[in-house]
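Fresh eyes needed here. Kindly weigh in on this sequence plus structure tokens:
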Amino acid sequence: MSGVRTQMVASDEGGVRVDRWFKRHFPGLNHGALEKLLRTGQVRVDGGRVKGSDRLTAGAAVRIPPLPDDAKTTPVRATDAPLNQADRIAVEDLVIHMDSEIIILNKPPGLPSQGGPGITRSVDHLLGGLTFGKKQRPRLVHRLDKDTSGVLVIARTVPAAAALAESFRERDTKKIYWALTVGVPKPHQGIIKAALAKVAHGPGRTDERMVIRTKEEDDEAKRAVTRYKVMEHAAQTAAWVAMMPITGRTHQLRVHATSLGTPIAGDFKYGEEGARMTGAISTKMHLHARYLRVKKPSGGYLEITAPLPTHMQKTWDLFGWNVDDTSDPFPDA
């Protein structure tokens, strides 16, 4: 057990969250133990109490309380496992943009962004194959649901990760998703304002779902706003819908689409059997992060468009819709 000491935040660590800074320097200290140290004020930054989600500034003094001797021992993680040649080739094939600060992937459906119980292969695990000569391992900046495809931003350096995370947090981004809905939303364009809360669901209440709740119904409900526009439709059977999240809640687009009575095709978690299309339409979820505009750490903005995954391309072709459409459904946003 080491004694109390002070450690300075390095110049390239400005903007990093407190909990992630500790994970980097003391990987053997588990999250629960760190939260207790923060809650009791044993960890302080420049003499003041902090939370795990607070951001550090370069040069700040972090008070490190006595820690177990194994706090610096790195636990074995799936992301540390070496990649085989097939995985290296596979993840490189996902890259649709790269510069000195940013890598953009076109994430395929079915690949989780991060690991978890029972998950042995994820984008986070594959990032070791995207160093491209840099010593630093690339970092995820945001996430997409496992079954959602499309634009996923990866930072190549710690300062870039902090700056990009700030852009997403401050919503200095523009994200447009394409979805296939079962049925046609009415009206054909509008704004959905419906707060969301997480609830336990299913046998043993082990499945978590997002549901629409007001603040009066649930104190944990959080504001959620989505703009949408019907781009094309096939009679009243299905629609190509562009969706732009104003807020970034878990499963927001999926729940909001279902709230209109038009669930996203293949989203059986929220649409249940109502999300199933007949005929040649794939049962995979039809939700794709099509376009992103994000502020670059070095200045200016990056705009990127990701091609549709194969199953959505086949659906668009089946309906005769333009898979190469690059028009902006929300030019005033």
Residues 290 and 307 are 7 Å apart (CA to CA). The first strand starts at residue 5 and ends at 8.
